[in-house]
Design a protein that fits this description.
By secondary structure, the chain is mainly alpha-helical. It is 41% helix and 10% strand.
Length: 302
Amino acid sequence: VRGDVAQTAHPPRVSYDPRTPNRNQIIQSPENRGNLTYQRMIFGNVSSIFNAAVDDDFVIKNPCRARSVRAPKKDTPKVVPWTAERVEAVTDALPERYKITAIQGAGLGLRQGEIFGLSPDDVDFLGRSVAIRRQVRLFTNGSMAFRLPKGGKSRTVPLPQSVALALSAHIQKFPPVAVTLPWDTPEGKPLTVELIVTTPDGKALSRNDFNRYVWGPTLEEAKVERTSRADGMHALRHYYASVLLDAGESIKAVSEYLGHTDPGFTLRTYTHLMPSSAERTRKAVDAALSSCAPIVPREAAK
């Protein structure tokens, strides 16, 4: 017995009221038809009921977990990247010590923890590349540790000249500081790394403190309304991806630079930002045929 449900040989007959909407009517109602969040809630509740039925031996398996059954997709809003003007306004509004964080996000596509964990040893100014080897991880108890980037692997991203100049100027004005943190977990082996960005007293940046005392006030000063998490530092990463895609960079390359394990995820996230192929096709054909003899009669061209 689970709860107040008694096991009987014959379940009690339930009267049907035609005025009561059935499951399909609820899900397909005009106000809920396009609400994937609502549909996922219904699906989750039904699946929980079947799980309880399996535990009480009423059914053998939960049909919601069958391969032939697809759960409603997560209602994920499309990424709307910041404009260049907004990125510039936020960068200008940041305190001088932390302006470089916006440039690292918008110019290298780094995650927040990767920005906090970047060392001058990771920057190859001559080879014009940056190795993303670690992040600063914040744990629920407030402790921090160095850890591999998300996905558990390092990567290398191109170093644009503008970002190289900004990094060089920042390093001259705010010399890197050696910071010691445990590796991977709060109990991990201590590791000392020179960091490009630290607190004024030479400590690693905490995500929570930075967001509360630096990023939030900066958005207010730049007159950027923070309506959701989309306006966090991750917005700079989305901006980076949008710039690359607009310039015609491939999804595979963008995925590698962002550190995504699956290029399909990159495509699903940013496909709506990719420029139309129609105009690129016209330009490609025109460029290929520009040196050829005219293939359109002059009469038709007129």
